[in-house]
Each structure stands twice: as C-alpha cells, then as structure tokens.
# Entry
Amino acid sequence: MTTRNPEFLPVELTSLHADSWTWPFWEAAASHHLKAPRCTSCQEFRFPPAPVCWNCRASEVDWVELPGTGVIFTFTVTRKPLLPALSDVVPYVTVVVDVDEAPGVRLVAQLVGQDPETVQIGQSVRVEWDDIREDLTIPRFTPAD
# Structure
C-alpha cells in the first residue's frame, strides 16, 4: 500500500463530479497527463470545459496535452479547519495556476511541498499527480524549483 503525503487533503473529502465535457480531463489525469479542450474553429482554450466556445460558439474541441507547469495567479492559505477531517493538514494552500502554453486556462488545486508563508503570486509551479484511489487521480502543484 502506498503511503499518502500527510500534506494532502483527506481522501474522504475528494470526489469526482465528471460529466461528458469534463470526463476527458479526468481520463487524462488517470494517466498523469494534463489536458485542456481547445476549440477546433478559433483555437481558444475552453476551460473549464463547456458545450460551446465562448469566443466563436463552435462546439468541436481537441483535447490538447499541456506541459503541467504554470505560475500562481493567486492563492489562499487556510489556517482554521472547517471540518474535523482537516485538522491534521492545516495550514494548507489552495492556488489558482495560469497553465503554461494554454492562454486563459486556470486550474485550482492544492499546493504541497512548500511552507505556506513563502508562497508568492507569480511563482513557478509544476503539477504532481495524486492517485487517490483506483478510479480517481487529481492534480496538485509543487514548487517548480
């Protein structure tokens, strides 16, 4: 059995709410790949995934593999546990990351492997995959070093 990183949020607080538009994201994540939908008509990224392009109203997309790196757009540090299950992981950092090579794509995830007091907007990060269970892998970010 794999030992989970103690910084990670408890498994009990993770669940997958996939639909037909988001399923390709989660399927790629299961293989440790970061993908986002890009409109085949105007080439705009559509994230979060949606049935039609916000730019040109087309419906077709290609799922494009991304490098898994980016910069922190903003973040918050949670210091008080809202639920008893979070008592062992506070403080924890939630980041919004501007994903490299995907203009307009921002991903919200937990930042691990860094003292919350040292996190900075504009900091480079990279994705780290957490295989929570056989049917669910989620992205987290770590400092890019």
Q: What stands out?
A: The first helix runs from residue 23 to 30.
